[in-house]
Amino acid sequence: MREPIETNHGSPPPPPPPQALLERLKDYGQEDAFALWDELSTEERELLFKDIEGLDLPRLDRIIRCSLRSQGLPVVAIEPVPENTVSTVEERTIEERERWWKMGLKAISDGKLAVLLLSGGQGTRLGSSDPKGCFNIGLPSGKSLFQLQAERILCVQRLAAQASSEGSGSSVSIHWYIMTSPFTDEATRKFFENHKYFGLEANQVTFFQQGTIPCVSKDGRFIMETPFKVAKAPDGNGGVYSALKYSKLLEDMASRGIKYVDCYGVDNALVRVADPAFVGYFIDKGVAAAAKVVRKAYPQEKVGVFVRRGKGGPLTVVEYSELDQSLASAINQQTGRLRFCWTHNVLVRDARQDVSHNLLGKLHCLRLLLKLWLVCLHMFTLDFLNQVANGLEKDSIYHLAEKKIPSIHGGTMGWKLEQFIFDAFPYAPSTALFEVPREEEFAPVKNANGSNFDTPESARLLVLRLHTRWVVAAGGFVTHSVPLYATGVEVSPLCSYAGENLEAICRGRTFHAPCEITF
């Protein structure tokens, strides 16, 4: 307990809390936020007033009540994903790949695609306080994740311009929306400015911040980080939907003629940003939402999978702990695959007690689940994003993560509230899945070098090995002074997006690893 501020003998008592704001807090059972008002300095009272005044109390009250009330509700039965909703690698024909590639390039050249980057996280576990996208994983070029992704956008723009029906090669622009957080926004903007937007036009990049939400006690009351500040936490990567809505960027997309939105996470060194084949597949299927998936490696792999909730229900994601062992091991006799094999994520961090909710018919469950590293490669129609933003806001159900929250009482056990990117799928009237090989499209950068997985070093090697295969397939040769499994060559995204158009650069040439191949 802080000591009350001393006043001169006979001086008037401190002013009471603003009555109107205090009454609003009482309406929602949050008047304890002003419990230490008399002990605050004038400056601290002003800070507390501004902090509380900035909260949307009716919305927060609805979210807290709905999220707490949803605990322990039953979950409807699950079914395997219908085979006709998945495009598998082995069943994908050359003709389909070429057709989808051309369809995607056409949509891009027509200005119908936007790219949406989820980049709210800091590189804390990488040993850096900078945004993750600023991180250099050690490639020969020394490029950051942001630069690799920007140059892939530049490459796709060039490919789309070259493929345009007019054959004029006129310029194509893909608008890049980048979601930051209060912790990464300023540094991200400065990084782009200092690097001249990596060759993109400044006006084709839009930054916006995800929201934060107060942390609450087990009975739903705000936890105070300090006597004059409510403890808050980011609202999860699923906060992108409400952030797009409240920043009016959905309207901005519509004004630009955008119809489709490619959404992905920043910490993947192999992410195929604005993948024309995925765009074309999405358009061809005529669905509201799609996701790239990888195949479950073995029945006990601790990953979440796509399922159908209820008879004929929409697709959604369930955690591995929801799958009975017999279901997890069940084989589809026609395909020889696991019945539940399409995973939305590929690696596991650590167990924790969460409350997780599947937003389908407001049926939810309390369960022990794992924090998962998501592949996080999605495609949505703009119309569907509007529907999701409104639906999630109306239902107001967030996942609850039990955490030790820094507070005026030290560490207080309470709830952090967050939404996940895959919370959108239960709202989709139609969803399609697109299988990709892990080794070609997923090189996560999560942990510092020295960890067992998902390190800059492991991501670097995945990039170098893939690009080395591209060079050899294009007729090039690679020499190396160390074992090839520990090195390789890097192909600049400005040269090739997915291994195409390398023959003119590589055929008959020898490259000594490690090196970067560029124009």
Automatic annotation (TrEMBL):
Mind telling me which CDD domains this protein's record contains?
A: UDPGlcNAc_PPase
Q: Which SUPFAM superfamilies match?
A: Nucleotide-diphospho-sugar transferases (SSF53448)
Its recorded reaction(s) are: N-acetyl-alpha-D-glucosamine 1-phosphate + UTP + H(+) = UDP-N-acetyl-alpha-D-glucosamine + diphosphate; N-acetyl-alpha-D-galactosamine 1-phosphate + UTP + H(+) = UDP-N-acetyl-alpha-D-galactosamine + diphosphate
Region (Disordered) residue ranges read 1-22
Keyword check for Transferase, yes or no: yes
User: Which InterPro entries is this protein grouped with?
Assistant: Nucleotide-diphossugar_trans (IPR029044), UDP-sugar_pyrophosphorylase (IPR039741), UDPGP_fam (IPR002618)
The lineage, from the top, is: Eukaryota, Viridiplantae, Streptophyta, Embryophyta, Tracheophyta
* Record protein name field: UDP-N-acetylglucosamine pyrophosphorylase
